[in-house]
Amino acid sequence: MKCPRINRSLFPLKMVLFCWYGASSSLIPYMTIHMKELGITVEETAIIYTFLPVTQLVCTPLAGMIADKLGRYKDVLMISVLSSVVFATAILFVPPAPNPRMEHPDINLHCGPVVLPHVAVEKCWGGPCDVFHTDRTNPMRLLGCSVYCPGFLNSEYLPSKKLCNDTRSYCFINDDLRYPLIENNFTVQMRLHEPYPGESTCQYLVSGVIPVFDTDSPNEEDLLKSMCPISVNEAGGNCTIKCNFQQLPDDDNGTFPHINRCVRTVGNRVLTFWLYFFLRILFNIFASICLTLLDATALAMVEAHGGQYGRQRFWAILAQAVFSPVTGYLVDLLSEHRGYMDYSPAFHFYNVLAVCTAIAVWMLSVDVPPPAQNVIKNFKKLLQVPPVIALMIVVFWLGSMWGFVESFLFLYLLDLGSPTFLLGLTLTTGAIVGLPFLHESDWFVRKVGQVNLLLFALLFYFIRFFGYSYIYNPWWCIPFEAMEAFTYHLMWVAAATYGAELAPVGLLATIQGCVGGFHYGVGRGSGSFAGGTMMSQFGARLAFRVMGLASGAMLIVYGVVYYPWLRRKEREYRKHVAAEAAELELHARNALPNNIAEAGNCTGSGPQTPEQTRVDGHLANNSNHNKMDDDLRNVENNQIKS
């Protein structure tokens, strides 16, 4: 058995893809729940995710145009990677937003020789004070007491550690005011009069306080604890006892019917939202540029060194399968140790792997076409080509399907009673099943064709979504997750290589930016918005079925339009691109000295320039497509004769 030959020229590219996709899979899946930990609400999260696709759609093709215009993919890519590290680190230090908390107001019992026993309730709501019914009692739990003596110790309340020293007492726990209340966590029933409002409190005179014991017949120890006398002799003067209480729910229905609760917020929620909003947009812009330029770089290197694009993507998906669960495990481990959710391992993993990516990019030897002269003009012409328009529409549609399932599948599985580790297992399943398909993706592209692989992706989305809608056991999602081999892995290989074949000389990064922007940007955002709206209005099962029908409809439309009409347009367009490439080759050779030009025409002569490599690739593709056209015509003629 002959061992496969390792293409050493592409080994640095494998390192770049492994490090970058390991970095992104360590952080990006956890950013949504990190937002929740920061206190960003669901509504605020929706606002952020509405703007992210828009910025990605605009900035990613723009970065591709800049790279094509300068002809320096490496420099733009390295700047983008390092910029994403800066903004990821900044996101880690965004201060958490104060979540509104419903808390009980402060409730204090005041009594002494010069004041009538009364309860003061903190008024932290709008409107009048609550009215208590005098014919019923209100359960309260004592939290602690202190003594206040005017003119002593700057009129501060004294601690309650020495309150039980003699027989003097001012707070009582029964109707005839005989016994004082002092033990912490002791429960009483208070009977209160109608309120008289103050500036910041609602005050109620106390008409009776009744102790509540754990048993119907309290023992002597319980009675002694509840009757501990309160001493104010050390302070002297007319002192007042202040006891802090917490309202308890009624035994009947477990509610708090009498005292409103306070909505407390501490901190600056506006600062947290807007700071995270701008940092996240900047991070997303540079991360998206990295994704696009890595695809363009990979395609350029694969074409220059005779490799297979899918086998390079193999290392990207392998990194996702490895680093995402490892990061999740470390987050759980650190959070358990610290007592709160700490997502810093995800950011640290991202920063380290992204810096490794930048170093590996610096070591790359990338041969790209020379800078295009009229990038914007050629780009406008490109968007007028029917096969390119159809590709963008289909990629947008597939991105919508992907955005919907990535955003809401976990919520659906949790509603079905899924354990948490099953959610992570779904990601691992899709990655592991997709690895062999990626390794042999060149065979699928050659034998099946890029357009057919896109149609298969739509078909499997149709099956996958309808399958999800009919399961009741969350474990049945595993077979449908395995379909990611077609709905994502092979689909992206087909879309990227198809876009590269349709790209004229000098517009490789530009068209890859458009493909990435339509799929990962506006497509994902549209799918999340439309799917989320349907889930909230009609439920998850119906939403999955509607999205499945949308995928099936695009499958039929694209198939019906492509084979009778678009395929012919694509052949004409490829011939036009090949003719332009031949003309560029002629100009390039005329610009060389005669002896070099003649040597370039000889078989086996020295290495070609990047432009010649690119042009020869277009000519080879055109030759192959002409042969395919002849074969198709022969098959059609044979079918007609038969």
Automatic annotation (TrEMBL):
Residues 602-612 have a biased composition (Polar residues). The keyword Membrane applies. It is found in: Membrane. InterPro entries: MFS_assoc_dom, MFS_MFSD6, MFS_trans_sf. Signal peptide: none annotated. The keyword Membrane applies. The chain crosses the membrane at residues 12-33, 45-64, 76-94, 273-302, 314-335, 347-368, 388-414, 420-439, 451-471, 542-565. Pfam families: MFS_1_like. Residues 597-642 are annotated as: Disordered. Residues 12-546 form the Major facilitator superfamily associated domain. SUPFAM superfamilies: MFS general substrate transporter. Belongs to the major facilitator superfamily. MFSD6 family. This is Major facilitator superfamily associated domain-containing protein.
